[in-house]
Each structure stands twice: as C-alpha cells, then as structure tokens.
Amino acid sequence: MSLATKSLKFITLIAILFGTVTVALSAEPINLFIIRNTTKTPDTVIAAVKAYSESHNWLFVGATKVKNDQVTLVKVCIPEIGKQIWPQGLYLSALLPCGNLGIYTNKAGKTEISMLKAEYMHILVPTPEMEKVSAMAEPMLNDMLTTALK
C-alpha cells in the first residue's frame, strides 16, 4: 500500500471519527419513523398489510414476533424499488426490504405501527439515484399504511 493511500485512509478515518463525534454531541436525531395508532388489533393490521402487499404484487416477506411476542416485525418488498436499487450494486440488497414496520400495543392499549421512512435508503446511500428511489417508494409505503389502517 502506497504512502498516499495510507494517508488518504488515515484522513478519511479521522474525518469519520470527528464527524461521528460531532453528530453524537450536537445533531438532532433524524426523524425517520412514521408512527400511527389504530383501534384495530395488531393481527388485523398485519393481515391488512399482507393483503395490500399481495394485491399490489409486492413481496410480503413476513411477520416475526419478537420481544416476548410484544412486537411484530413486518417486512414487505416492492419489486419496482428493488429493480431500481440493484443496478447500483447488488451489495445494496441489504437495504431491502423496502417496507419495515413494527406493530405493537402501546401503553395506552392501542395498536401502534412504526414504519421506517423510505428516506433511510438515501441517507445510507446519498446518491442522486437513491434519492429518486426513496422518493418513489415513500408514497407507495404511505398508501399501504393508510389503506391498512382504514
């Protein structure tokens, strides 16, 4: 490894560490979550998300109970979004599925749904292409959530 390469890596590492410390000390957290409440049961919401996904030819990846069955993680993948992501690199498959939801009963006894905004993809991969993909996915996921809660 050349001295120039080592120097560049060192400078990058320092910049990352300094940036991380600065963010940790001074930045406000990025609001990447949509949180909605409903009187529907968690199972009813999960069934509605699954039905919506299937009716739109999305892939319902699954619903997995965690935290002693208190939370259900629901994952959906939108093929149109995957087709936009994969040409940028197959390693970006880790960003999928596009729809990430947590469904649980809150302290007030209501079902609460937390959905990760599609914007997370652009934040993790800040390219113009990923910005377009995130913007494309956001209204699709919002419509799914709104429809599932009707």
Give the key terms:
TATA-Binding Protein; 5 helices; 2 domains; 150 residues; single chain; 23% strand; 5-stranded antiparallel beta sheet; alpha+beta
Structural account:
The protein is of the alpha+beta class and 150 residues long. It has two domains: 1-29; 31-148, TATA-Binding Protein, CATH 3.30.310.70. The chain has helices at 3-26, 42-55, 79-85, 119-124, 128-148; strands at residues 33-38, 59-66, 71-77, 99-105, 111-116. It has a five-stranded antiparallel sheet with strand order 1-5-4-3-2. α2 crosses α5. The longest helix is centred in the first third of the chain and has 24 residues, at 3-26.
Q: Give the strand line-up of the largest sheet.
A: 1-5-4-3-2
Measured between the Cα atoms of the first and last residue, the distance is: 59 Å
Mean of residue pLDDT? 86
The CATH H-level homologous superfamily of the largest domain: TT1751-like domain
How do you describe this structure in short?
By secondary structure, the protein is an alpha+beta fold. The chain has five helices and five strands. It is globular.
Question: What's the structural blueprint in terms of helices and strands?
Answer:
Elements: H1 3-26, E1 33-38, H2 42-55, E2 59-66, E3 71-77, H3 79-85, E4 99-105, E5 111-116, H4 119-124, H5 128-148
Helix pairs in contact: 2-5
